[in-house]
Amino acid sequence: MPDTSAAPTLRDVVAILERVYDPSWAESWDAVGLVCGDPEEPVRTVGFAVDPVAAVIDEALERGADLLVTHHPLFLRGVHGVPATTFKGRLIHKLIRGGAALFTAHTNADSADPGVSDALAHALDLHDLRPLEPRAATPELGIGRVGELAAAEPLSAFAARVAAALPATSGGVRVAGDPDRPVRRVAVCGGAGDTLFGAVRTSGADVYVTADLRHHPASEALEAGGPALVDVAHWASEWPWLEHAASTLRSTLAAGGTNVDTYVSTLVTDPWTAHLAAG
């Protein structure tokens, strides 16, 4: 356990997280930052998870977390109250009673360097990374990443690489394209990425790895001569970022003379729980 005398405050931890994942990088519709918690309280244990769902919050309290950092917001739209008669209100009451704060880094973590898509790219052993859709005036920041494999490999082998690199989900990995097609340049986007097909085509990628691909955009992208597609679970595509974020927090605090324990939740919070082949 860390030396409790060297424990940072929640204010200290939030300052680091907001420096690494600047709230100004978030999309205008997003809701990021501190959701609940007293900035003056000490933080000794920090949990990291994709979704602030009941099971994740129960786990955080069982593990004695003083802070839970999640990628997805609990409140994406404005609310007028958090009574315990609603399921989200119950979660907030549970966190406060348990002495745990909640912090969200969502699209600001998507745009960060390194961010969510960097972690996905690293999990697939890609190198020479650059943003798929750079932010204006900040070419190192942006949504998605494009990178290279060390050597070209068939789409079938690459799909197996993706399946082995990411945590298992009931939906597994879906592939669109000729299994023998060689791929080397890879575009990735953690989370839902079917709005980025234009940027993917411009990048010259041989294959695009993302989540939540819908029928029509995927079909039209293939018909237009676009890259092969690898569709994974939304939760799985963002999960690799958690350890990156935890490691960054630990190293930054240690450089300043304080420290925390961290853990990454391995609870599978993908909402789909079964997959059956039709026919």
Describe this structure in words.
This protein is an alpha/beta fold. The chain has two domains: 131 residues, NIF3 (NGG1p interacting factor 3)-like (Udp-n-acetylmuramoylalanyl-d-glutamate--2,6- Diaminopimelate Ligase, Chain: A, domain 1); 120 residues, NIF3 (NGG1p interacting factor 3)-like (Udp-n-acetylmuramoylalanyl-d-glutamate--2,6- Diaminopimelate Ligase, Chain: A, domain 1). It has ten helices and eleven strands. Helix 1 crosses helix 10. It starts with 9 loop residues before the first helix and ends in a 15-residue tail after the last strand. The mean pLDDT is 95. Homohexamer. Keywords: Metal-binding. GO terms for molecular function: metal ion binding. This is GTP cyclohydrolase 1 type 2 homolog.
- Rg, Å, rounded: 20 Å
Report the β-strand fraction as a percent range. 25-35%
CATH superfamily of the largest domain: NIF3 (NGG1p interacting factor 3)-like
Q: What gross morphology would you assign?
A: globular
What is the spatial order of strands in the main beta sheet? 5-6-8-9-10-7
For the sheet with most strands, the description reads: 6 strands, mixed
The proportion of residues forming helix, as a percent range, comes to: 25-40%
Number of strands: 11
